[in-house]
Amino acid sequence: MFPPLYRIECALPGSVDFYNTDELLNDEERLVRSTVGRFVDKRFIPIVAEHYERGTFPMEIVPELASLGLFGMHLQGYGAAGMSNVMYGLACQELERGDSGLRSFVSVQGSLCMFPINHYGSQEQKERWLPPMARGEVIGCFGLTEPEFGSNPAGMATRARRDGNDWILNGTKRWITNGNLAHLALVWARTDDGIRGFLVEKGTKGFEAREIHNKLSMRASVTSELILDDCRVPASSELPGARGLKGPLSCLNEARFGIVWGSLGAAIACYQSALEYARERVQFDRPIAGYQLTQEKLVGMITEITKGQLLALQLGRLKDRGKASATQISMAKMNNARQALQIARDARSILGANGISLEYPVMRHMANLETVLTYEGTNEVHMLAIGEEITGLSAFK
Fold first, then answer.
1. Given 94, 146, 225, 376, which residue is catalytic?
2. Which of 2, 130, 265, 279 is 20 to 30 A distant from 136 in Cα terms?
3. 273 burial type by CB count under 10 A (0-12 exposed, 13-18 middle, 19+ buried)
């Protein structure tokens, strides 16, 4: 499963495993976590601050991500690793402990691009695209969000019309992770027969990706706008199994599951940084970790991390049995992203002025989590989805 170089077992630090959740994992799950964690520590964390400051993603690590089996790792066949959802979640935790941009890169590739091709694509599409995507030779992006339609994808303005043996696409997609890096875009558009998904290759006439600059969050991630101006694609580019909103929404559920675990990774990084700093930082002749208000913050952090771990693990077990519902995923995403952001803010306050420096990971994670809180469904939308489930009444309209 993994190259010998990374087959090194190491326990999750006790400081973030207050309830001994490590005992709830099997050996293979712990191996996935420690293997990905080792890669993040050795290959990504030493370079992430530089890339964050420059607003770039380190494409040189893509072959290594592929060699670890991380692209589409929870899918079966076509070169994918075929691991469990819990293993995928643990990998997302470690990736986002490095940075949300790293987890997003892997998540978009596997959950938003490879998953729909595997689930809704033709046999020809699967054989053509999935093996090179698993090897990291083809990078994908997911075009759903539009300038005027984010939380309400049913209102999408992008249109596709049939013209003989082709489809002609017109519209704009915005806030698209990996857009400028992608060789293949999965674009969702409205047709006369409902919403459909289309595979659009880089270089197709009428298709352009424009990078979005001046971001204050997710800076170690490439974000783009996709322009479709009479973009002509063959009929064979349509995903035959995707009909209506169910297609894109099922992809979002896959991505949200990764965020449930990934946001924990960001929270863990912030907590560990704050704990270490508080033990070493001396004010009024003693470490600030010895003061009551600092301990209150640290206790709150580890408590929420522990609750988030249990929530994520149970969700993963349910998903591996095919029993996880969309609203269960919504609850975990809503909770873990929200609590991770609060943990980052509390950690920043413990670090004081040092907390805003890229020498520490806290402010970087905090800025990223502002985005994580709202993408793949805002905190409010998830709350209302759960509210509808428990009351039977929709508050959306």
1. 376
2. 265
3. buried
